[in-house]
Amino acid sequence: MSRPLCGAVLGIALLAAGASPVAAQRPGGFGSRIDSTRYVRTTAPTNPVIQRMYQEGMERGQAMALAQVLLDSIGPRLTNSDRFDAGQRWLVQKYASWGIPAEQQQYGTWMKWVRGPTHMDLVTPRLRTLEATMLAWSPNTNGRWVEAEAILLPAERDQWAGWASQARGKFVLASEAQPTCRMPAQVQEYGTGVTVARIDSLRGAWRADYRQRVAYGGNPKVWPKELGVAGMLTNSWSNYPGVEKIFGSPKDADNVPTLNITCEDYNLLYRLAENGMHPTVRLFAESQNLGEQPVHNVIATIRGSEKPNEYIVFSAHYDSWDGGSGGTDNGTGTITMLEAARILKQVYPNPKRTIIIGHWGGEEQGLNGSRAWVADHPEMVTRIHAGFNQDNGTGRVVSAGPGPFPAGVDALVRYMAELPSSMTGQIRMSDVGGPATGGTDHASFQCMKAPVYGLGASSWDYGNSTWHTNRDTYDKLITEDLQNNATLVAMLAYMADQDPALLSHEVKPMTDRQGNPAEWPSCGTGDRDTASSPR
Fold this sequence. Notes:
- Strands 1, 2, 3, 4, 5, 6, 7, 8, 9, 10, 11, 12, 13 and 14 form a 14-stranded mixed beta sheet that branches.
- Helix 4 links the parallel strand 4 and strand 5 (about 170-175).
- It contains 16 helices and 14 strands.
- By secondary structure, the chain is an alpha/beta fold.
- The protein has helices spanning about 50-60, 65-75, 80-95, 160-165, 185-190, 195-215, 225, 265-275, 325-345, 370-375, 380, 405-415, 420-425, 440-445, 460-465, 480-495; strands at about 100-125, 130, 130-135, 145-150, 170-175, 230-235, 260, 280-300, 305-315, 355-360, 385-390, 395-400, 430, 450-455.
């Protein structure tokens, strides 16, 4: 899921290039709630296809086996990295083994970057191996160990010139420290009122102070290179011990390695520097920049037997950040759609309408893969009957909605009313609202007035513990929830395929907060190359 950076000061400036500018979007839209008695059954499903899908997905499901390959063996899928390519080839082969044609479809070009090993030690005043992660697209240390002092930014603007003259070859501590790396919930539970107030006050003051320090030199994506610093050391803490937000290095800061240091280790370096103890660190970092190369989506197709020119879309972004293995963002969405296609092919192999399964690239850089696809296939977009997008974590689907499509209300109610209450009972369905404007890929379709709906998942503390973090790994997946979501999507697709006519693409008129008419959002065509993107 694509959302702006938060946390460290440098996330506002230096690291902003690593996160999408697109704001998060609630999957169900902004409408009021639909009465659940309209769509939650009080009896067991009687449709034999629904019953067989439940057995295939919940009793013979392959979701976790597929996820183990994707997350453990293939690993993280940074856009157009070597692992991104390896996983796309695996998807194509897996679909082929089920008799489903699939292919990599180029939508542009992107910088190809290969991560190598990173190792960093504190060497003076004592020895300690630091938990450090080189940020995506960062340059390397040219095959050598680099040893240098880690220094703070100057505290006053008039100190900048003198500081800059001494910064060459040094590691710069480019984020504020944290008063504590204990989670805020723990501080609230155990701290006295004085403790809580002190920590909150220090955190705010230190953040404001370091924002000023970062800005003294001008553009923080430029001056590190101009000054010839050895590297930029940052912290983007996620409010949990050891959990860090990991994004990308600045696009314009070539030849300056950029690393995230965990809160605990970053604070250690900061305190040593602040107290005049001159910490020295040693870094070895490998990476390969292979230049601009073709970048792809993976598109799988189950051709319709009666209405091949009408479409039902399965949608999930395939790319991830690479601090962890992209487990819940968006390995779970990828597996949901992959397993849903397998269930559909096994139980309902000849749908009336064509099923399009889109595994989008470049979502984390601004929904680039899905935006490019809808822009390049207008004749198909106008014939989309329904679609389902899943992002935002491992939990079972708990929210859905029609977005801006009035016809989608009765359609979704009708579909879910045939499904087991164990799947629909927890779903909060919203009424008609505005179109999704960002955050994940159904926004690309809704912007083009195609009824692809977002399926929102229960949190499992997604925002703090796994979203774009170094701990987003296979162990965070919940078997029952992932099986539920894949089976749910297969069932929804089957129900949508039973509709006799193409669903209306009529949308609710846009209004502003005062209820005045407003323009429909601009859709764009996605950034088709690295140069076009803020990255």
